[in-house]
Structure formats: C-alpha cells, structure tokens
Amino acid sequence: GGAFPTSSSQVAGAGPRDAALGIGGYPEGSPPTGKSYEYNGVAWSTEATLNPSTGTNGVNAAAGTQTACINVQNTAGGATYSYTAAGEYDGTSWTNAATRPANNYSNAGAGTLTAGLFFGGTSSPTGTTNATVSYDGSAWTVESPLNTGRSELAGSGIQTAALGSGGYSNPPATFYASTEEYNGTSWTTVNSLNTETRNGKSSGFQTDAIIMGGRNPGPVNTTNSFRYDGTVWSTAPSLATARNNFGNGATSPVGAAWGSAGYYPGSSPNRTNTTEHFNVETVSVNPASNLTVS
C-alpha cells in the first residue's frame, strides 16, 4: 500500500482497504496533525481538516466508512481533562458531533456512523473503564458495560455484533488477552487471544476477524496477527513492520484489512508511515517506494 502522508502514531481509521479513511495522528515531537486522508488501496489523498473539538486534541477511535464516519477524542489540553468530544465526516468535511456521555480515551470502536459503538478506555484523569456507548447518528446512549474494564483494546464488528480483544490497565500494569462479544444488549467473555496484546488493531466481524500488531508484555512491539472464526483464535500471517497504535478499519472485511502508520518505541524515528494490506493469507507493505513484501 501507499505511504501514509505523515509518520505518526495514534491514527484512527475507518473503511476497507480500497475505500479507507485515516484520521489524525501524532508525528514524533509534534502536536496532532488535525487532518484526515482518504485511501483508494494505492495512494492517500484528499486532505480534510478535523472538526474543532477533536482536531486540536487528537483522535482515538472511529466507526463508519470513508464517506460517513464518527470519531472520538483521544487527548485533552489539560485540566479539567475532558475527553467527551466527537466529530462526523460526510466524505468532504468534518463537523462537531454531540458530546459523549463517557469521559474516556484510548477506547475501541465498531459499527457505522448511524449505528456506532465505543467501549473501554481510560477514564479521566486516570483509571480504566468498562463503559460502552452507542451512537445513532445524532445522539449517544449508555449501554451495558464490558465485563473487564481496560484501555487500548482492539474493536471490530457492528453495533449489534461487536468484538473487543486484548487491552491494558495500570496500576498495576496488566496486559490482556481476553476477548468479549457484544450482541446489542450485553457483553459475553469468550475464548482469549493467543497472547496478551495492547494497542493492537482489529478488522472484520464476530465470525471472521483479525487482530494485528500491538505490544506484548515487556513491553515490545509485535508483528503478530491472529484470526478469529467466531469461536477460537489462530495464528495468521505476520505484519512486515512491528507497530502499535496505528490506523485501520474496524468494520473492514478481513480480506480487505489494512494497517497504516503507527508507533514503535525504542527506535529513531519512532513512527512509521508504511501501509500494509492483509490479502486473505498474505501481508504486503509499501513504504515510500514500490517495495512489496509477501
């Protein structure tokens, strides 16, 4: 895939590989970009400025498509540490959305603009949360909470059939492998990931999903990928570049999954702009060149 416009961490995303949306990002040593970009499976283009309430504070998670998306705020400028902002994208521009009833960041998303779901995260100013909220395109509703409160978990699926996997809490520092399924009413704990994973990203649906990248206890970045068949997780082809906290489409089918940009601590620079595609059984990557790794 084509190189993301900036080498950034904390990039949110939406949509499948050939019609994707990359949102926000933190370049190394710089403030949030406050921009979004569209992707056609080959190159990134069409820069748009984020809505005021999330554009200056960074974006955490998103739900929807390239032309109809809801994002949620990731950082706050300081006390009183409010993380309730959200924004909507219509394929051309961003506008402020209704304020969320959950004051948290580093959560996961699933679903669409008019049937979105956001869950978990870190509550303000500290401490993980099991909060779950839904969005109908105009208003937010508090839903049944996760069984295990955690932040930096991966989300995929739709509002009435979502999947939440992995995650992190602190104190004490704890990495999670646990997975939960949501049926539109409540969460159920199901079979765990093969390994504890923090800040990985997931695409697909409850009966066919993939989680990729993230950080394992150590902590170290990983190239691991695991695929879920609705019952158990199994090993999938690895990423070419170990990374965490990167952009992807939560409701993208597994065969059109993608991951772009991201963070890899311990390196200099510690951000990447590479984009990878998951082609059913093969992962390919293209940084700024035409290099392809399969």
Shape: globular
Helix content: under 10%
Distance between the termini: 12 Å
User: What do the pLDDT scores average to?
Assistant: 90
Contiguous uncertain segments of 5+ residues:
285-294
User: Measured on Cα atoms, how large is the radius of gyration?
Assistant: 17 Å
State the secondary-structure class: mainly beta
- Number of helical runs? 1
Oligomeric form of this entry? single chain
Describe this structure in words.
With 294 residues, the protein is mostly beta strands. The protein has one helix at 52-55; strands spanning 8-9, 12-14, 20-23, 26-27, 35-39, 44-49, 59-64, 69-73, 86-89, 94-96, 104-105, 108-111, 116-119, 122-123, 132-135, 140-143, 154-158, 161-165, 168-169, 174-175, 179-182, 187-190, 201-205, 208-212, 215-216, 220-221, 225-228, 233-236, 257-260, 275-278, 283-286. The strands form ten sheets. The protein has a four-stranded antiparallel β-sheet with strand order 2-3-5-6, with no helix packed on it. The protein is globular and about 40 Å long. The two termini are 12 Å apart. Mean pLDDT is 90; it is low at 285-294.
Write the layout of secondary structure elements.
Layout: E1 8-9, E2 12-14, E3 20-23, E4 26-27, E5 35-39, E6 44-49, H1 52-55, E7 59-64, E8 69-73, E9 86-89, E10 94-96, E11 104-105, E12 108-111, E13 116-119, E14 122-123, E15 132-135, E16 140-143, E17 154-158, E18 161-165, E19 168-169, E20 174-175, E21 179-182, E22 187-190, E23 201-205, E24 208-212, E25 215-216, E26 220-221, E27 225-228, E28 233-236, E29 257-260, E30 275-278, E31 283-286
Antiparallel strand pairs: 1-4, 2-3, 3-5, 5-6, 7-8, 8-9, 9-10, 11-14, 12-13, 13-15, 15-16, 17-18, 18-21, 19-20, 21-22, 23-24, 24-27, 25-26, 27-28, 29-30, 30-31
